[in-house]
C-alpha cells in the first residue's frame, strides 16, 4: 500500500488534538468527583490549596524533568528522517550515475530502491514490522553487488557502501529509540505524583465559588496532558508528537515516479 507525503501530513494534523481529547475526560472526572465529595457527601475543609502546594510543586518538578529528558532525545530524532531520505536518494543517484558513466542502462536500479524506500516509509508509519523493514534493507547489498557487476566504477561502489552503512546505522538508531523507554523508574514516580495531585484536586477547598471549579479543572487537564505528552514524545516516531517524516515520504515519492 502506497503512502504519500500528503497523506502522512494529513494524519499528523488530525493527531495534533488527540492528546488534549484524551485529557479532557480526566479533567471532567475530577470535576464530577469534586461535586460528589463537596456537594453530595458534604466533605469540606479537608485540605486547602496552600496545604497541597508542596505536593503540586514536587509533581511539577518531576514532570518538568521527565519532559526535558524526552525532548532532548526528540531533538536528535528530528534529524534522522532527513538522513534516511537522503541515503535512499543517494543509493539511487550513485548507482544510476555510476552506470551512466559507462553508458550502461540503469533503469533497473530505481524500482529496486523504490521498493526499499516504500518499506522503510511503511515501517516509520507503523504499517510494517521490524523484520520486514530489515529484510528490505538487506536487499541493498545485492543491489550494490549487481551494480558493481554491471560495470559501476569502484569509487562509486565505495560511496554506495557508505550510503548503505549510513542508512543501516540510522534505521538501527530509530529502532532503538522506538523500542526503548526513557527512565522507567521516573515514569512510575511521575504517574504516582500526578495521581496524588488529581486526588488532591478532588478534595481541595477554595474560597472563591468560581475558582473551586476552574482551578481543579484546568490543573487536571494540564497535568494529564503533560503526562500523556511525555509518553508520546518518548516515542517520537509515532503518535501526536511524531517527528516530521516528510523527507522520507518525499524520497519514497520521488523514487516511485
Structure explained in plain terms:
There is one protein chain. This protein is mostly helical. The chain folds into two domains: 5-77 and 183-233, no CATH class; 80-180 and 245-256, no CATH class. Helix content is 76%, strand content 2%. It has helices at 5-15, 18-40, 53-77, 80-101, 109-124, 130-137, 140-150, 154-179, 184-203, 211-233, 246-256; strands at 47-48, 204-205. It has a two-stranded parallel sheet. The longest helix has 26 residues, at 154-179. 30% of the residues are buried. Mean pLDDT is 88; it is low at 1-5.
Q: How much helix is in the residues?
A: over 70%
Q: Count of DSSP helices?
A: 11
| Through-space gap between termini | 15 Å
- Give the CA-based shape: rod-shaped
Element-by-element helix/strand order = HHEHHHHHHHEHH
Q: How many structural domains are formed by the residues?
A: 2
> Largest beta sheet: what is the strand line-up?
1-2
Low-pLDDT parts are 1-5
Strand content: under 5%
Number of strands: 2
Major sheet? 2 strands, parallel
Averaged pLDDT, please?
A: 88
Class by SSE composition: mainly alpha
Computed over alpha carbons, the radius of gyration is 26 Å
Amino acid at each position: 500500500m502506497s503512502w504519500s507525503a500528503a497523506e502522512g501530513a494529513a494524519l499528523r494534523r488530525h493527531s495534533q488534538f488527540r492528546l488534549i481529547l484524551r485529557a479532557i475526560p480526566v479533567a471532567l472526572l475530577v470535576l464530577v468527583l469534586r461535586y460528589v465529595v463537596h456537594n453530595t457527601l458534604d466533605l469540606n475543609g479537608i485540605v486547602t490549596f496552600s496545604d497541597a502546594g508542596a505536593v503540586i510543586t514536587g509533581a511539577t518538578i518531576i514532570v518538568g524533568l521527565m519532559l526535558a529528558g524526552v525532548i532532548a532525545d526528540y531533538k536528535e530524532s528530528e534529524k534522522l528522517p532527513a538522513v534516511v531520505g537522503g541515503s535512499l536518494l543517494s543509493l539511487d543517484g550513485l548507482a544510476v550515475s555510476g552506470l551512466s558513466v559507462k553508458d550502461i542502462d540503469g533503469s533497473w536500479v530505481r524500482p529496486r530502491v523504490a521498493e526499499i524506500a516504500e518499506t522503510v516509509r511503511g515501517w516509520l508509519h507503523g504499517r510494517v514490522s521490524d523484520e520486514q523493514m530489515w529484510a528490505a534493507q538487506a536487499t541493498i547489498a545485492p543491489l550494490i553487488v549487481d551494480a558493481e557487476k554491471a560495470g559501476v566504477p569502484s569509487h562509486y561502489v565505495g560511496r554506495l557502501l557508505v550510503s548503505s552503512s549510513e542508512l543501516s546505522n540510522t534505521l538501527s538508531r530509530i529502532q532503538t529509540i522506538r523500542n526503548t523507554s526513557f527512565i522507567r523508574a521516573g515514569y512510575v514516580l511521575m504517574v504516582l505524583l500526578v495521581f496524588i495531585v488529581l486526588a488532591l484536586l478532588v478534595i481541595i477547598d477554595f474560597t472563591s465559588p468560581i475558582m473551586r471549579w476552574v482551578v481543579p479543572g484546568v490543573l487536571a487537564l494540564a497535568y494529564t496532558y503533560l503526562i500523556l505528552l511525555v509518553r508520546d514524545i518518548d516515542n517520537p516516531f509515532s503518535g501526536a508528537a511524531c517527528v516530521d517524516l516528510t523527507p522520507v515520504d518525499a524520497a519514497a515519492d520521488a523514487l516511485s515516479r
